């Protein structure tokens, strides 16, 4: 059975999401236990944590308990903020997620790449399964279909686009603004593109893991080394933080000791003198796209600093164009129904295999008999070939209707009836198999 545990911006606060995502590796290892599930894919983004499990016989309560223990949460606390999807509902949910329909900013484009990287990571570590591979590959197909048919993902929607729109009036002249990007991952690339689309030119990048120079060289921006971070903060108008750190990188202490409006042009944290700060007529703007947080919440209490985090962005997410979203959700429902039907059809495979094996066995015996006769009587060569072709055609015709009917039964959730009927006719034990086994 397919199972999905979802903790996202709709049912959990940012603090709970942070607590889970700080223990992502531990949670992933726990849910990937072969005794718990034969396949597991974990999707962790800035506003959701999801575990997709291929786990026949696993009760949702067991999965929730395993997640709670691994995340060091009380089971009751997790259960109150976790949605559980099972069976065919998992399919529709993932299709909607991968298409951006469940995002804070409906139609965001980044989520498709995040879903793809989640299944890639599971595959690379041996945590995936055949059923999960089918599911995630089809999710990519549905996402692409929605993008091309509705244009929902071509409107430039993303959380960072939304955040930049929210601070647009505060920045004013983007070309003159000095911007610091923190992080060098996939979301940093999307953030950089969004900044440039706004007209930002003076952009620096800082990496807690030391990858700033490589990222800067490949993107044509300036690198900020570890010992230059505080000096850079002295003269920065806008910080966009999207690094994968486990604890806040920018604390109140840093901003208390760097230049704010009306302060002298010094950075005292390490006794270094920073370049003269410009006369600020606007506050310093901080956008925290990280989960866990990159910036401590108490930084918002520093004079001359404004902090915009994921919770604030989510509260101001715009209502999407109704028509495009409705069309996209219709595509998701249709695709999910067809995927579920194909999964159900696989439940009839054992019966089909037995039936075809029985008929084809008799067919090959008759063809062998004809060929033996042909070897004795060379004059019957043409007749033998025609007879073989006729027998193969007849076998196909005989198998067609039972094959169609077995698949119909499977789509109706009655695959077991078909399997039992074939077993009864052939005098064999019912074969086991199918997606739910």
TrEMBL record:
Pfam families: GlutR_dimer (PF00745), GlutR_N (PF05201), Shikimate_DH (PF01488). Substrate binds at residues 45-48, 103, 108-110, 114. One of its GO terms (molecular function) is glutamyl-tRNA reductase activity. Residues 327-426 form the Tetrapyrrole biosynthesis glutamyl-tRNA reductase dimerisation domain. Its EC number is 1.2.1.70. PROSITE patterns: GLUTR. Residues 168-261 form the Quinate/shikimate 5-dehydrogenase/glutamyl-tRNA reductase domain. The record marks 93 as: Important for activity. It comes from the Bacteria. It is an enzyme of class 1 (oxidoreductase). Pathway: Porphyrin-containing compound metabolism; protoporphyrin-IX biosynthesis; 5-aminolevulinate from L-glutamyl-tRNA(Glu): step 1/2. NADP(+) binds at residues 183-188. It catalyses: (S)-4-amino-5-oxopentanoate + tRNA(Glu) + NADP(+) = L-glutamyl-tRNA(Glu) + NADPH + H(+). InterPro entries: 4pyrrol_synth_GluRdtase, 4pyrrol_synth_GluRdtase_dimer, 4pyrrol_synth_GluRdtase_N, GluRdtase_CS, GluRdtase_dimer_dom_sf, GluRdtase_N_sf, NAD(P)-bd_dom_sf, Shikm_DH/Glu-tRNA_Rdtase. Keywords: NADP, Oxidoreductase, Porphyrin biosynthesis. The active site is at residue 46. Residues 6-150 form the Glutamyl-tRNA reductase N-terminal domain. HAMAP family: Glu_tRNA_reductase. Possesses an unusual extended V-shaped dimeric structure with each monomer consisting of three distinct domains arranged along a curved 'spinal' alpha-helix. The N-terminal catalytic domain specifically recognizes the glutamate moiety of the substrate. The second domain is the NADPH-binding domain, and the third C-terminal domain is responsible for dimerization. PANTHER family: GLUTAMYL-TRNA REDUCTASE (PTHR43013:SF1). NCBIfam families: hemA (TIGR01035), PRK00045.3-4 (NF000750). Belongs to the glutamyl-tRNA reductase family. During catalysis, the active site Cys acts as a nucleophile attacking the alpha-carbonyl group of tRNA-bound glutamate with the formation of a thioester intermediate between enzyme and glutamate, and the concomitant release of tRNA(Glu). The thioester intermediate is finally reduced by direct hydride transfer from NADPH, to form the product GSA. This is Glutamyl-tRNA reductase. It comes from Leucobacter muris.
